[in-house]
Design brief:
With 273 residues, the protein is an alpha/beta fold. It has two domains: 1-27; 35-271, Collagenase (Catalytic Domain) (3-Layer(aba) Sandwich), CATH 3.40.390.10. It is 54% helix and 12% strand. The chain has ten helices and six strands. The chain has helices at residues 2-34, 39-48, 57-73, 86-98, 154-162, 170-180, 197-218, 232-245, 247-253, 255-265; strands spanning 75-78, 113-117, 121-128, 133-140, 142-144, 150-153. The strands form two sheets. It has a four-stranded mixed β-sheet. A two-stranded antiparallel ribbon has the order 3-4. The protein starts with a helix and ends in an 8-residue tail after the last helix.
Length: 273
């Protein structure tokens, strides 16, 4: 009986600890969201994130608060000799936080660390056909690990931001994967606001994914990168890039897909540009 009471007391203390921790984190986030966006940080965003200039003033203010939270909660590490700077952190945080605007967010809750290389980097790759396993290496621009870090190359980050009309943005791409992975599975279906939305989401994205696969096979042109035909997870990430960087083209040629992403992100980039 004494052991049971001790165990119950310990469990109670643990519950109280996590409740207090959550309340403290919530209060800190509220303070950071309301805090002024440092002027030097805004100058970095204006210089390195052209899409920022097109945002309505209300969204610029919201983005500043989200960047405050992102930089306070995430750890940045330079790799391959890269020295970490405010410019690197703010540029990445601002683009990642674009995906969190105007909606309830988990602030990329499973993400703790962002690793940044100066250039494209080489990563080990293991492939198998069920009988033979091959160890090799691949050159990468970035990657997103479920329950792990996001890895980016700085030259790919800056290259992706210079042209907001090419629908190629490694930060938007990898952080779309983070959203997709929040439910524990990278399948192109992130956590939606309402359960009733999943049927429409699956129907539209499956149809568009298959259409992109056919275009890739026939070598036909597409608004979206053909890399999105790799699998449903990559399709969602590529569609996200296109939604933010080629919104009018997507809205015209893929209206149903645009509407699904518009409902998910609670944004309408076609109105900004």
């Amino acid at each position: 009986m004494i052991i049971i009471k001790i165990a119950a007391a310990v469990v109670g203390l643990v519950v109280v600890y996590f409740i207090a921790k959550r309340a403290s984190r919530g209060a800190n986030r509220k303070r950071l969201l309301a805090a002024p966006f440092p002027e030097e940080w805004e100058q970095i965003v204006e210089k390195n994130v052209p899409l920022y200039k097109h945002l309505p003033d209300s969204l610029k203010q919201e983005l500043g608060g989200l960047v405050n939270v992102f930089i306070a909660e995430k750890r940045f590490e330079g790799c391959g000799g890269l020295e970490m700077t405010d410019e690197i952190k703010v540029t990445i945080a601002a683009q990642a936080s674009m995906l969190l605007l105007s909606r309830k967010t988990r602030y990329f809750s499973k993400l703790r660390t962002i690793l940044v290389y100066p250039h494209t980097y080489v990563a080990k790759m293991v492939s198998s056909d069920g009988r033979i396993t091959i160890d090799g290496y691949s050159v990468r621009l970035g990657e997103s690990w479920q329950n792990g870090p996001v890895v980016l190359s700085w030259d790919s980050v800056t290259g992706g931001t210079r042209n907001i009309a090419d629908a190629r943005n490694v930060v938007l791409h990898e952080f779309a994967h983070q959203l997709d992975q929040e439910d524990g599975v990278a399948d192109g279906a992130p956590i939606l606001e309402r359960r009733s939305r999943y049927a429409a989401w699956a129907g539209v994205l499956s149809e568009e994914y298959e259409a992109l696969q056919k275009k890739k096979k026939k070598r036909r042109r597409s608004v979206m990168s053909k890399y999105g035909a790799t699998n449903p997870a990559e399709f969602f990430a590529v569609a996200t890039e296109t939604f933010f960087e080629k919104p009018r083209q997507m809205q015209k040629r893929h209206p149903d897909l645009y509407d699904e992403l518009k409902d998910y992100y609670k944004l309408d980039p076609a109105e900004w540009l």
